[in-house]
Amino acid sequence: MQKLIPALAAGACLALAPAADAATPFTVGTGQFPDVAVDNDGTAHVVWEEHNGGASGDDIGYCQVPQGMTRCADGPLRIIDAPAEGIGRSSYVFVPSPNRVVIVSHRCCTPDATIAYVSTNNGISFSGAVTIGDLDAEDGVLGGDDAFYGVDTGGRVQRMPLSGPQVRQQALLNAGFAVPTGSSIALFGGNRPVKVSADFSDTTFHLHNGAGDPNDASTWSGPNPVTPAGGEPHLAAGSAGTAMIYRTGSPGQLHARKFDGSGFGPASTLSTGDPISADLTADGSGRFTAVWRENEPNPSELRIATSSDGSNWSKPAAILRGSGADDIFHTQVAAAPSGKGFAVWDANDRQGTITMAALEPLADANEPTQTTTVGDQELSFFAPNACVQPPEKVTLRVTSKRKRKLSPRRRVKVASVVFSVDRTKKTDKKAAFKQAFSTAAFPRGSVHQVRAVVTLRPVVKGAFKNKKKTLKGRFNVCG
After folding, report:
1. 47/152 Cα distance (integer angstroms)
2. Which residue from 230, 158, 216, 220 is spatially nearest to 192, judged by alpha carbons?
3. CA-to-CA distance for 399 and 378, rounded, in angstroms?
4. Which structural domains are found in the chain, ordered by start?
5. What average pLDDT does the segment 226-243 reach?
6. Which residues contact 68 (CB under 8 A, 6 or more apart)?
7. What is the pLDDT of residue 264?
8. pLDDT for residue 310
């Protein structure tokens, strides 16, 4: 789902926020179908359906999680007593400007109503419910015109101004095939709704003409076919354009494609491991972040990938692995312009837990930049394989692993490593061999050379002279 956050930077990059440790998942509530938005300070705003039989129906849970925390903050934590019941994915949250938080929720079923709650004091309190529409949206986005644009599973679209009154008209857009099983919406160019519908056998899109009421089907063009067809589409849009992820093939693959106003460009394959429960967001810098649950190979993983332009994607990285990743459903993702953000999901149970994790790749998620063998030791050099956001530090490290048995007089061990970024050098003489370097002074878009000069000595003193091996790589600073 797209999250509308004011742009703070003109460019973006293929960035995965580096982390020394795995992201720690934590529980924020009980219920189903969460949603998340991240403000410019990196604080997550989370909502979910609290199926607790509130005074007038299901409640809406809301809390905030600042960066670095693994629980809801002590401040704004609200249970909103919403009318009627939330069926399926019902509630959405947006942070369109500092201190302004918007919650939109569809309540079922007699009558159907979509309502909005607005806070102007950063979620400390919310206005009373304003009824704005009647579409049961499967996906939705908040536009710069202060209207919620929703699309239902079948592909019907409704624009609903937050100020009301309730909108009844909907754009009944023919998908071009019988029964869509998934739809998504975004704002191409910042103000033109684009809608994709799919059922795995067929995928089509509609684009608003840019003039007239989006609730009038005659103001839309389409359906236009998307090939290859797929299912479970997710659109997002920002300053870098509009992109889509969707599942194709059997076993499932996850593809990412950029939309140019007339169609979708070449596919980038993010996963071939039967991915499920995916989502896509665009942050305030324009960067796209995709998240999904990777089912194969075992154990399951929650993975992310990023793109600065919607066409070129970073190598996927796991942020969660093992048993905790086996119960991930209805995942949503959001990030700040810095690239820091959160994923949130449920356990596919009305009374299950709402769980979150920061977008921090596991320490072993990156492949080594270079690997070589000296004597009986396999040396691996690790450096960033995605662009780095200044002023984050870059950590270089060298690991060694014994590969085969040799006579003690031929065996080696690492004595020291001289790490360097450009001409700055640092030496480590103790395992684990690693050093950190600042990027605070590096210009955006610049490229920097990294090296590790490894000195190895014989296990048996004097058996032969020390050996040296140079391992190389490079990284770029996000543009």
Report:
1. 19
2. 220
3. 8
4. 26-358 (2.130.10.10), 370-476 (2.60.40)
5. 97
6. none
7. 98
8. 95
